[in-house]
Each structure stands twice: as C-alpha cells, then as structure tokens.
C-alpha cells in the first residue's frame, strides 16, 4: 500500500516545509479507553462503537487540515481496519503489538522511506477542528515539536523534523518526556487539538467544544 496522499504536494506558504503524514495508532476496540468504559454506564458494545466513532472523527478532521498530506492508521482491529479502508485511509497492521510507542516506530519505519515528514496524532480527539491542527503544524515550522494535552501532562500531537525519525515517548508524563527529548512545545489556543478523551469528564469537555458527527451520533 502507499500512503494516503490526498494532497501530496501541499506546502505551507509561510515556509519551505513539507507537509506531514500523520500516524494514528489505535488499540483493538475491546482494549481501548478502559478508563472511559469503567466510568461510563455503557455496554461494552456501545463503548466499542464510541471508541470507533471518536477515532473516525479524529482522522476525518486531520485529513482536512492544511499541512497534512495524508493519514495512516496503525491497528490490527478488523472492524477499525474495515471502516478506515472503506474511507480511503491506509491501514498498517500493528505487527509489533507491543504498545503505543512500538506501533508508532513501526509506522515511522514504514513511512519514512517514502515521505519527507512524519508525525503522530492521538486517536481520541473527537472535537478536533482542522484549523487548530493546521495552526499547530504551522507553529512547529520545521522543528521537532509536540502539543501537550489539556491536562498539560500528556501529548496529543508529535511532529518529527523533516527527514528525521519520530522518536515517540508516549506514556505517563509524555509531555515532559518529549520536552526532555528536545521537542518544542506547541502552546497555542488550540482547545480542540488538546482535548483528548480518557474519562467521562474529558468527554463532557469535548462535547462542549463540539463533537464530530460520528461521536455525536454514538452518544446521542
């Protein structure tokens, strides 16, 4: 498969910096967002539907953002694979099956031989607005950069420098870990990019910002 190059030659007018191909890793539906499942009153099937809806809305918004040349999903979940493939999104199997950073390194290795810049985007941003993502990418310029989540401790977006490896350091305290690795923090007023959803409180915050259509239907 080749990367989903909706706009392979897109460049920012402000700088000579290549557009980014974003890698979006997603756990199997029955394992994803366990805290949200534990707090909510949803049946596991409804929880899986919500997780899928959030991921679909996140990727759909990312594909519309200026500066994003394509999106590649990393997952081995058959339902997610079918949905994203039907939407024209490239899917790579999570061959390492060893967690988030291993999945991202796998995607990075697969992409870097054929694209000039890669990034990682979390799949739990149901209120994501394309303009917020585009603004963050513009703010990054050509620097290795990251956007912290709304708690200030996690990371929702990580951008490699052009031609350089992604070097993901997701996990507890990832914002600090990415800063320590030399990545530039992106601290603009991009609420929708920073609003990852791990808890019911996070979901209420995302709802107030404005949910994507699939997520809105899933929680209706």
Describe, in plain words, how this protein is organized in 3D.
- The chain is an alpha/beta fold and 220 residues long.
- It is built from nine helices and seven strands, in the order E-H-H-E-H-E-H-E-H-E-E-H-E-H-H-H.
- The protein has helices at residues 34-39, 44-63, 78-86, 100-111, 130-140, 174-180, 191-194, 200-209, 213-219; strands spanning 20-25, 68-74, 90-92, 118-121, 145-148, 155-159, 184-185.
- Helix 3 links the parallel strand 2 (68-74) and strand 3.
- Helix 2 runs antiparallel to helix 9.
- It is globular, with a radius of gyration of 16 Å.
- The model is unreliable at 1-14 (pLDDT under 50).
Low-pLDDT segments, ≥5 res: 1-14
- Run of helices and strands: EHHEHEHEHEEHEHHH
Instruction: Compute the number of strand runs.
Output: 7
| Total number of helices | 9
Shape: globular
Note the beta-strand portion: 5-15%
Roughly what is the average pLDDT, rounded to an integer?
91
* Helix percentage: 25-40%
Strand order of the biggest β-sheet: 3-2-1-4-6-5-7
End-to-end distance = 36 Å
* Oligomeric organization of the protein chains: single chain
Radius of gyration: 16 Å
Task: Find the structural class using helix and strand composition.
Answer: alpha/beta
Largest sheet composition: 7 strands, mixed
């Amino acid at each position: 498969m080749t990367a989903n190059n909706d706009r392979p030659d897109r460049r920012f007018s402000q700088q000579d910096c290549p557009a980014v191909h974003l890698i979006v890793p997603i756990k199997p539906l029955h394992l994803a967002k366990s805290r949200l499942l534990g707090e909510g009153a949803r049946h596991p099937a409804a929880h899986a539907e919500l997780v899928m809806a959030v991921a679909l809305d996140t990727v759909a918004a990312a594909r519309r953002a200026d500066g994003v040349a394509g999106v590649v999903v990393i997952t081995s979940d058959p339902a997610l694979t079918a949905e994203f493939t039907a939407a024209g999104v490239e899917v790579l199997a999570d061959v390492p099956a060893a967690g988030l950073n291993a999945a991202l390194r796998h995607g990075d290795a697969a992409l870097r031989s054929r694209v000039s810049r890669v990034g990682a985007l979390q799949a739990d941003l149901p209120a994501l607005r394309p303009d917020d993502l585009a603004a963050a990418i513009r703010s990054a310029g050509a620097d290795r950069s990251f956007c912290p989540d709304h708690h200030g401790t996690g990371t929702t977006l990580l951008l490699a420098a052009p031609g350089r490896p992604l070097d993901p350091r997701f996990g507890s305290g990832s914002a600090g870990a990415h800063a320590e690795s030399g990545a530039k923090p992106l601290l603009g007023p991009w609420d929708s990019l920073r609003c990852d959803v791990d808890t019911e409180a996070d979901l209420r915050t995302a709802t107030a910002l404005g949910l994507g259509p699939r997520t809105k239907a899933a929680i209706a």
